[in-house]
Write a structure and sequence with these properties.
By secondary structure, the chain is mainly beta. The chain contains three helices and eleven strands.
Length: about 180
Protein backbone atom coordinates (compact mmCIF):
# COMPACT_ATOMS: atom_id res chain seq x y z
CA UNK A 1 0.00 0.00 0.00
CA UNK A 2 1.23 3.48 -0.88
CA UNK A 3 1.11 6.58 1.34
CA UNK A 4 -2.19 8.07 0.00
CA UNK A 5 -4.02 4.77 0.61
CA UNK A 6 -2.38 4.50 4.06
CA UNK A 7 -3.77 7.94 5.00
CA UNK A 8 -7.19 7.10 3.52
CA UNK A 9 -7.46 3.86 5.51
CA UNK A 10 -6.51 5.64 8.74
CA UNK A 11 -9.08 8.34 7.98
CA UNK A 12 -11.89 5.77 7.70
CA UNK A 13 -12.04 5.78 11.51
CA UNK A 14 -14.06 8.66 12.98
CA UNK A 15 -12.44 8.70 16.44
CA UNK A 16 -9.69 6.20 17.27
CA UNK A 17 -7.87 3.68 15.12
CA UNK A 18 -7.39 0.43 17.07
CA UNK A 19 -3.75 -0.20 17.96
CA UNK A 20 -3.70 -3.55 16.13
CA UNK A 21 -4.97 -1.84 12.96
CA UNK A 22 -2.28 0.86 13.19
CA UNK A 23 0.39 -1.86 13.42
CA UNK A 24 -1.14 -3.76 10.48
CA UNK A 25 -1.25 -0.65 8.29
CA UNK A 26 2.35 0.24 9.16
CA UNK A 27 3.40 -3.30 8.27
CA UNK A 28 1.71 -3.11 4.84
CA UNK A 29 2.94 0.38 3.97
CA UNK A 30 5.33 0.48 1.00
CA UNK A 31 7.47 3.50 1.77
CA UNK A 32 11.06 4.61 1.56
CA UNK A 33 12.74 7.85 2.55
CA UNK A 34 12.66 9.18 -1.02
CA UNK A 35 8.84 9.24 -0.74
CA UNK A 36 8.94 11.53 2.30
CA UNK A 37 11.97 13.73 1.59
CA UNK A 38 9.93 16.90 2.31
CA UNK A 39 9.36 15.67 5.89
CA UNK A 40 12.99 14.90 6.74
CA UNK A 41 13.96 17.89 8.83
CA UNK A 42 16.48 17.59 11.65
CA UNK A 43 17.35 19.95 14.52
CA UNK A 44 20.82 20.18 16.06
CA UNK A 45 19.42 20.63 19.60
CA UNK A 46 16.58 18.08 19.85
CA UNK A 47 14.78 15.49 17.80
CA UNK A 48 12.31 17.02 15.34
CA UNK A 49 8.60 16.15 14.98
CA UNK A 50 7.44 16.76 11.39
CA UNK A 51 3.71 16.53 10.61
CA UNK A 52 2.88 14.54 7.48
CA UNK A 53 -0.88 14.07 7.84
CA UNK A 54 -3.67 15.27 10.12
CA UNK A 55 -6.92 13.29 9.87
CA UNK A 56 -10.10 13.06 11.92
CA UNK A 57 -8.78 10.17 13.99
CA UNK A 58 -5.01 10.43 13.73
CA UNK A 59 -1.80 12.28 13.09
CA UNK A 60 1.11 10.88 11.10
CA UNK A 61 4.52 12.33 11.88
CA UNK A 62 8.06 11.73 10.70
CA UNK A 63 10.48 12.07 13.64
CA UNK A 64 14.11 12.84 12.84
CA UNK A 65 16.84 12.12 15.39
CA UNK A 66 20.53 12.96 15.26
CA UNK A 67 23.02 10.86 17.20
CA UNK A 68 22.56 11.18 20.97
CA UNK A 69 19.08 12.68 20.79
CA UNK A 70 16.29 11.14 22.83
CA UNK A 71 12.75 11.87 23.85
CA UNK A 72 11.82 12.72 27.37
CA UNK A 73 10.34 9.84 29.37
CA UNK A 74 6.66 10.06 28.46
CA UNK A 75 3.32 8.45 27.72
CA UNK A 76 0.70 9.43 25.15
CA UNK A 77 -2.33 10.55 27.26
CA UNK A 78 -5.25 8.92 25.47
CA UNK A 79 -3.58 8.25 22.11
CA UNK A 80 -2.47 4.92 20.71
CA UNK A 81 0.94 5.11 19.00
CA UNK A 82 2.39 2.98 16.24
CA UNK A 83 6.00 3.43 15.11
CA UNK A 84 7.94 2.18 12.11
CA UNK A 85 11.70 2.63 12.01
CA UNK A 86 12.55 4.04 8.57
CA UNK A 87 16.31 4.50 8.99
CA UNK A 88 18.74 3.57 11.74
CA UNK A 89 18.11 1.79 15.02
CA UNK A 90 15.83 3.14 17.75
CA UNK A 91 16.39 2.21 21.37
CA UNK A 92 13.14 2.04 23.31
CA UNK A 93 13.37 1.99 27.09
CA UNK A 94 10.19 1.13 28.95
CA UNK A 95 9.30 2.20 32.47
CA UNK A 96 6.94 1.01 35.19
CA UNK A 97 5.64 2.67 38.34
CA UNK A 98 6.95 1.58 41.72
CA UNK A 99 4.65 1.35 44.75
CA UNK A 100 5.60 4.90 45.76
CA UNK A 101 4.51 6.29 42.35
CA UNK A 102 8.01 6.87 41.02
CA UNK A 103 9.08 5.23 37.79
CA UNK A 104 11.93 2.83 37.05
CA UNK A 105 13.37 1.44 33.83
CA UNK A 106 12.01 -2.04 33.25
CA UNK A 107 13.74 -2.89 29.98
CA UNK A 108 15.22 -1.72 26.71
CA UNK A 109 15.11 -3.05 23.19
CA UNK A 110 16.68 -2.20 19.87
CA UNK A 111 14.31 -1.56 17.00
CA UNK A 112 16.17 -2.05 13.72
CA UNK A 113 15.28 -0.46 10.43
CA UNK A 114 11.90 -1.83 9.31
CA UNK A 115 10.79 -2.69 12.85
CA UNK A 116 7.30 -1.79 14.02
CA UNK A 117 6.17 -1.28 17.59
CA UNK A 118 2.85 -0.20 19.07
CA UNK A 119 2.11 1.40 22.43
CA UNK A 120 -1.08 2.04 24.35
CA UNK A 121 -1.73 5.52 25.65
CA UNK A 122 -0.48 4.83 29.18
CA UNK A 123 2.71 2.94 28.25
CA UNK A 124 5.66 4.91 29.65
CA UNK A 125 8.78 4.93 27.47
CA UNK A 126 11.72 6.84 26.06
CA UNK A 127 13.08 6.61 22.51
CA UNK A 128 16.75 7.28 21.78
CA UNK A 129 19.23 7.35 18.92
CA UNK A 130 22.39 5.89 20.43
CA UNK A 131 24.08 4.97 17.14
CA UNK A 132 27.52 6.06 15.96
CA UNK A 133 28.09 9.80 15.57
CA UNK A 134 27.25 9.94 11.86
CA UNK A 135 24.08 7.80 12.02
CA UNK A 136 20.69 9.45 12.06
CA UNK A 137 17.40 7.83 13.05
CA UNK A 138 14.11 8.39 11.22
CA UNK A 139 10.84 7.02 12.61
CA UNK A 140 7.28 7.20 11.28
CA UNK A 141 4.66 7.67 14.04
CA UNK A 142 0.88 7.30 13.94
CA UNK A 143 -1.03 8.76 16.90
CA UNK A 144 -4.74 8.02 17.27
CA UNK A 145 -6.57 10.08 18.22
CA UNK A 146 -4.22 12.97 17.39
CA UNK A 147 -1.73 13.56 20.19
CA UNK A 148 -2.50 16.73 22.13
CA UNK A 149 -0.57 16.25 25.36
CA UNK A 150 2.00 13.94 26.87
CA UNK A 151 2.72 13.10 30.48
CA UNK A 152 6.45 13.67 30.96
CA UNK A 153 8.14 11.81 33.79
CA UNK A 154 11.16 12.59 35.95
CA UNK A 155 13.07 9.78 37.65
CA UNK A 156 13.14 11.77 40.89
CA UNK A 157 9.42 12.70 41.08
CA UNK A 158 6.30 10.66 41.77
CA UNK A 159 4.01 12.73 39.53
CA UNK A 160 4.43 13.50 35.82
CA UNK A 161 3.83 16.91 34.35
CA UNK A 162 1.72 17.48 31.26
CA UNK A 163 3.22 19.11 28.19
CA UNK A 164 1.49 20.03 24.98
CA UNK A 165 2.79 18.23 21.91
CA UNK A 166 4.84 20.70 19.82
CA UNK A 167 2.93 19.70 16.66
CA UNK A 168 -0.36 20.47 18.43
CA UNK A 169 1.08 23.87 19.38
CA UNK A 170 1.89 24.66 15.76
CA UNK A 171 -1.54 23.54 14.54
CA UNK A 172 -3.66 25.16 17.25
CA UNK A 173 -1.54 27.95 18.71
CA UNK A 174 -1.00 26.63 22.25
CA UNK A 175 2.14 27.01 24.31
CA UNK A 176 4.65 24.18 24.53
CA UNK A 177 7.33 23.34 27.05
CA UNK A 178 8.93 20.52 25.03
Amino acid sequence: MQLPEFFAQLDEYPQQVPLERIAELLENLQLDLNDVQAHLEFNAHHYKRNLMHQGPSCQVLMLCWLNGQRSQIHDHVGSNCGVRVMRGTAIETTFHRADNGMIFASGSRSLAEGSICANHDDDIHQVSNLAAADKCLVTLHVYSPPLRNMNVYDLSASQPHVVEDPVHELLYGGASTV
